[in-house]
Design brief:
The chain is α/β, with parallel strands linked by helices. The protein has one domain: TIM Barrel (Alpha-Beta Barrel), CATH 3.20.20. It is 25% helix and 18% strand. The strands form two sheets. Strands 1-2-3-4-5-6-7 form a seven-stranded parallel beta sheet. It has a three-stranded antiparallel beta sheet with strand order 8-10-9, with no helix packed on it. α4 links the parallel β3 and β4.
Length: 280
């Protein structure tokens, strides 16, 4: 959990528990698993126990809600950065039920529920076809195969905002059919992978998503390059480089840098667009 999260597209993060099981290619180099191992927690996989938290942890969102009310603003809460709220484990059901109550008690917070398991959402939430105005539903779509599996299920959810996290972006994505009409995807987040084993992201994949969002007037957020970005003369010559072939036959060179040095500008600007909050 973190107030003033370092994740660029949220204000805070809240985890009802830590731990998960990998389900798709985007999970391969999971940053949350790596972080948990660094702090001595073996909580990944079907046989591993999850990490749970006490009362002070669960009181924190009430403080954030009070601060938001006092300041007259809304705050976004990413739930969960170290887990998947909709993981299918019996011992998690009571915590999910507690989370639904917490969401109801914090109406000045917009809760961003991001999952790789959209098939489990409707059977897990208590809201039927009338969801709270402060719940945003999102799915991860790391490539076209997983977008085809997850986005149609996302569009079945009557959430105030529906969003996609295309991070780590592992392939070309055509989202255009889901960015128009009603229901539609209201927000797209994209970014490259970070970490020791980060896979390079073709810059054209990010540009394609940005252009699709611009054409449909859908907010676009470019979170990061990760550890690979387009090469330029400023990068030291001893840095590792890879060549990526483009669809038109051109080759673009990527250089491996730290996440902070790689930055998050795309074609000379940052993309921090957000959807309009609809919470009451």
């Amino acid at each position: 959990m973190a107030k003033n999260s370092a994740i660029e597209w949220t204000h805070h993060t809240f985890n009802p528990w830590w731990g998960c099981t990998k389900v798709s290619p985007g999970c391969k180099n999971c940053y949350a698993e790596a972080f948990a191992r660094r702090v001595g927690r073996d909580i990944w996989g079907t046989r591993a126990e999850r990490r749970f938290f006490g009362e002070s942890h669960w009181r924190e969102p009430h403080k954030w809600n009070s601060e938001a009310v006092t300041e007259g603003v809304r705050r976004r809460v990413f739930c969960a950065s170290m887990a998947d709220v909709f993981e299918n484990r019996p011992e998690l059901t009571p915590l999910r039920e507690r989370l639904w109550g917490l969401i109801a008690e914090t109406p000045a917070l917009d809760w961003l529920l991001l999952t790789k398991r959209p098939e489990r959402v409707l059977k897990s939430v208590p809201w039927g076809d009338k969801w709270p105005a402060n719940v945003w539903a999102g799915v991860t779509a790391e490539n076209q195969r997983w977008a085809l599996r997850r986005v149609p299920l996302l569009l079945e959810l009557p959430a105030a905002v529906r969003f996609l996290s295309c991070e780590p972006l592992l392939g070309s994505l055509d989202l255009s059919a889901w960015l128009i009409g009603t229901p539609r995807v209201d927000w797209v987040i994209a970014g490259g992978e970070s970490g020791h084993k980060a896979r390079p992201m073709n810059p054209e994949w990010a540009r394609q998503l940005r252009n699709q969002c611009l054409a449909a007037s859908v907010p676009f957020h470019f979170k990061q390059w990760g550890h690979w970005r387009p090469d330029d003369a400023a990068a030291a010559p001893m840095r590792r480089r890879v060549a990526i072939e483009q669809p038109d036959g051109r080759t673009v060179t990527l250089v491996r840098l730290s996440k902070s040095l790689a930055g998050r500008d795309l074609d000379g600007r940052t993309w921090d667009e957000l959807p309009e909050p609809r919470g009451a």
